[in-house]
């Protein structure tokens, strides 16, 4: 009887502990998620495109593709979706082009990113848009000052 009570208490403790850990992970703020994206991300697909996504800070994001580098003039990352919705605009010679995409972490140093031709899909798909894998090649240095 005592063994059953001890096992029940241990199981209750372990389930409470794992539940609280899950809640801590889900409470990650959008700023922390954005900060984890900061760095230089190189496209590592089969084609040697030389493309990259460089996130320096919340005001400086650059896309390089096919030898052309563009600074994003606006963007929005919606972290409430999984994968994240990443919409952005770039200036092309005489016009502004708007793009809808989804992006998500494969691991700490690998992103999966799909840019759609038209409407965005809620998940990664091979039927529309361009799918890229990006590997972080450099983290942006961040300096903190002590008070």
Structural summary, described in words:
- This protein has two helices and eight strands, in the order H-H-E-E-E-E-E-E-E-E.
- It has about 150 residues and is an alpha+beta fold.
- The protein folds into two domains: about 1-30; about 35-140, Calycin beta-barrel core domain (Lipocalin).
- It has an eight-stranded antiparallel β-barrel.
- A hairpin with a 2-residue loop joins strand 6 (about 95-105) and strand 7 (about 110-115).
- The termini are far apart.
- Residues about 10-25 and about 140-145 have low confidence and may be disordered.
- The H-and-E topology, N to C, reads as HHEEEEEEEE
The helix-and-strand class reads alpha+beta
Q: How many strands, which pairing sense, and closed or not: the largest β-sheet?
A: 8 strands, antiparallel, barrel
Instruction: Give the count of helical stretches.
Output: 2
Query: Numbering strands along the chain, what is their spatial order in the largest sheet?
Result: 1-2-3-4-5-6-7-8
> How much is the radius of gyration in Å?
20 Å
Mean pLDDT over the full residue set:
81
CATH C-level name of the largest domain: Mainly Beta
* Helix proportion: 10-25%
What's the overall geometry?
Answer: globular
Estimated share of beta-strand residues: 35-45%
CATH architecture of the largest domain: Beta Barrel
| CATH fold-level assignment of the largest domain | Lipocalin
The N- and C-terminal alpha carbons lie at a distance of: 57 Å
Overall strand count: 8
């Amino acid at each position: 009887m005592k063994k059953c009570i001890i096992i029940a208490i241990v199981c209750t403790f372990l389930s409470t502990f794992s539940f609280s850990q899950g809640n801590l992970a889900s409470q990650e703020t959008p700023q922390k998620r954005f900060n984890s994206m900061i760095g230089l991300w190189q496209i590592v697909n089969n084609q040697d495109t030389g493309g990259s996504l460089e996130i320096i800070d919340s005001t400086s994001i650059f896309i390089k593709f096919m030898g052309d580098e563009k600074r994003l003039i606006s963007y929005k990352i919606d972290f409430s979706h999984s994968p994240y919705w990443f919409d952005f605009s770039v200036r092309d010679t005489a016009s502004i082009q708007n793009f809808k995409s989804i992006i998500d972490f494969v691991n700490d140093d690998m992103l999966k990113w799909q840019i759609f031709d038209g409407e965005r899909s809620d998940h990664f798909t091979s039927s529309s848009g361009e799918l890229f894998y990006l590997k972080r090649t450099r983290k942006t240095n961040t300096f903190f000052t002590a008070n």
